[in-house]
């Protein structure tokens, strides 16, 4: 079959009963979420039909699907395009912006991730590390799990000699509500392989983070 014929037949392919049922379920769920959001607006004391709010349930639903894009991909697959390069020293990507969502309050937490690894014959594209971080950040998260998932993905795909991940973030659920400590920030770390076993590797990672330009 020619490429054009193949694309045309895919475009007009009849949906299976399962796909139709999935789509109908998704639409029902979306309507239920929007009805819930209207109730929430009312419960908070405003009118869901006033001009500024009438489209808000649609916007919030759309925004949530964006915040959680990471559920619809396998983040570690970004790392799978590897290059055979014999580099036996630390490779570190610093200050990767993260925007995630606290799973307890659905409030944003944001900051930076620093990902370092000592390769074992295989390296990956630097941008792919940032793409993988995004994939795990765009889920309902706690910072500790996010940190571990990033380290595990690096370990699983690249089989490096060691991995170290540090995340520094501010949690809006601690700033604008609750305990209201807007200056507080949280640092988490995950270490694997050589970084777990040898303090000098951890020190090297940390000394690069402490450079004066930070
Ligand atoms: N360990 C951890 N805790 C988090 C993270 N994000 C939010 N939290 C915390 O999750 C906890 C949830 O506590 P709960 O007592 O169940 O909820 P709450 O009554 O809203 O708590 P307050 O925030 O203290 O008002 C809070 O202490 C938050 O600060 C995270 O990434 N890691
Ligand atoms: Zn929270």
TrEMBL record:
<dbReference type="GO" id="GO:0003934">
    <property type="term" value="F:GTP cyclohydrolase I activity"/>
</dbReference>
<feature type="domain" description="GTP cyclohydrolase I">
    <location>
        <begin position="35"/>
        <end position="209"/>
    </location>
</feature>
<keyword id="KW-0554">One-carbon metabolism</keyword>
<feature type="compositionally biased region" description="Polar residues">
    <location>
        <begin position="1"/>
        <end position="10"/>
    </location>
</feature>
<keyword id="KW-0479">Metal-binding</keyword>
<keyword id="KW-0547">Nucleotide-binding</keyword>
<dbReference type="InterPro" id="IPR043134">
    <property type="entry name" value="GTP-CH-I_N"/>
</dbReference>
<dbReference type="InterPro" id="IPR001474">
    <property type="entry name" value="GTP_CycHdrlase_I"/>
</dbReference>
<dbReference type="InterPro" id="IPR018234">
    <property type="entry name" value="GTP_CycHdrlase_I_CS"/>
</dbReference>
<dbReference type="Pfam" id="PF01227">
    <property type="entry name" value="GTP_cyclohydroI"/>
</dbReference>
<feature type="binding site">
    <location>
        <position position="102"/>
    </location>
    <ligand>
        <name>Zn(2+)</name>
    </ligand>
</feature>
<feature type="binding site">
    <location>
        <position position="105"/>
    </location>
    <ligand>
        <name>Zn(2+)</name>
    </ligand>
</feature>
<keyword id="KW-0862">Zinc</keyword>
<dbReference type="InterPro" id="IPR043133">
    <property type="entry name" value="GTP-CH-I_C/QueF"/>
</dbReference>
<keyword id="KW-0378">Hydrolase</keyword>
<dbReference type="InterPro" id="IPR020602">
    <property type="entry name" value="GTP_CycHdrlase_I_dom"/>
</dbReference>
<comment type="subunit">
    <text>Homopolymer.</text>
</comment>
<comment type="similarity">
    <text>Belongs to the GTP cyclohydrolase I family.</text>
</comment>
<protein>
    <recommendedName>
        <fullName>GTP cyclohydrolase 1</fullName>
        <ecNumber>3.5.4.16</ecNumber>
    </recommendedName>
</protein>
<feature type="binding site">
    <location>
        <position position="173"/>
    </location>
    <ligand>
        <name>Zn(2+)</name>
    </ligand>
</feature>
<comment type="pathway">
    <text>Cofactor biosynthesis; 7,8-dihydroneopterin triphosphate biosynthesis; 7,8-dihydroneopterin triphosphate from GTP: step 1/1.</text>
</comment>
<keyword id="KW-0342">GTP-binding</keyword>
<feature type="region of interest" description="Disordered">
    <location>
        <begin position="1"/>
        <end position="27"/>
    </location>
</feature>
């Amino acid at each position: 079959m020619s490429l054009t014929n193949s694309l045309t037949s895919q475009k007009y392919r009849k949906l299976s009963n399962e796909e139709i049922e999935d789509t109908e379920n998704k639409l029902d769920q979306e309507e239920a979420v929007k009805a819930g959001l209207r109730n929430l607006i009312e419960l908070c004391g405003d009118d869901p039909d006033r001009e500024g709010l009438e489209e808000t349930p649609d916007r919030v639903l759309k925004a949530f699907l964006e915040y959680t894009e990471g559920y619809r991909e396998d983040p570690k697959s970004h790392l799978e395009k590897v290059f055979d390069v014999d580099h036996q020293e630390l490779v570190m990507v610093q200050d990767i912006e993260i925007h995630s969502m606290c799973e307890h309050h659905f409030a944003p937490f944001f900051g930076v991730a620093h990902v370092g690894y000592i390769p074992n014959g295989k390296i990956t594209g630097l941008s792919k590390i940032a793409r993988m971080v995004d994939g795990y950040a765009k889920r309902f998260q706690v910072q500790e799990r996010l940190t571990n998932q990033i380290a595990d993905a690096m370990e699983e795909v690249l089989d490096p000699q060691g991995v170290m991940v540090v995340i520094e973030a501010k949690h809006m659920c601690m700033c604008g509500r609750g305990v209201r400590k807007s200056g507080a920030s949280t640092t988490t770390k995950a270490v694997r392989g050589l970084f777990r076993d040898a303090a000098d590797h951890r020190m090297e990672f940390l000394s690069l983070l402490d450079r004066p330009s930070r």
